[in-house]
Write a structure and sequence with these properties.
Length: about 240
Amino acid sequence: MKAKHPLRKRLLIAGGVLLAVLVVLAAGFFWYVSDYYRAEDVALAVLAQDDGIETRDNLTILSPSVPSDTAIIFYPGAKVEAAAYLPLLDQIRQTGVTCILVDMPFRMAIFDPNAAEDVMARFPDVEHWYMAGHSMGGAMASQFAADHPDQVDGLILLGAYIYGDYPPEDTLTVYGSLNQSVEDKLDYTENVVEIQGGNHAQFGNYGPQKGDLPAEISAQEQQAQTVAAIEDFIAARQAA
């Protein structure tokens, strides 16, 4: 019986070391995800509107003044507060399209790329679904569209490129001319819109982003051009 004590001691030490490693990893993870880009006041002010904006659980629904059978599901960029995209989506809904903003776990779409499945189930009256997202959110929206082509009418990528096997002809890709990393990855030319003087961050309202070049146009102008491109893209697809 005594011979078993050294083994038990080694197991206890190994267990303690493993526990300590897990604690350090967990602490590092929560430190990483707690350091994120906050929505600016101009974005938070959109929530104060009483007309057509509703929050349900992790969703913010922006409805047009006239009921629509077309909706966009929007995945935010990584480590960006979802509300930062409200000014952009508020402008899109004014074109007659419902916008549904998804607040992702730990503010990273990679942790729930199939969130759109639940969204679609909760809005059965919508007939035409478009997936959209910014940066990593765009990549995860693209992956969902590739995995569910029969449920998606089109894909809208902002500061991102197609991730997965989804047709470029069914995709709108919008990026700023100062966001060279996106341009370098594009291997298709269909429905690609380059915003001169735009950068990576200004699709949302969360301030400068690390590693991003300063834009040569305002966020308002970059978003206005983006909305126009999205409106034209959806109109063309629905007219086809």
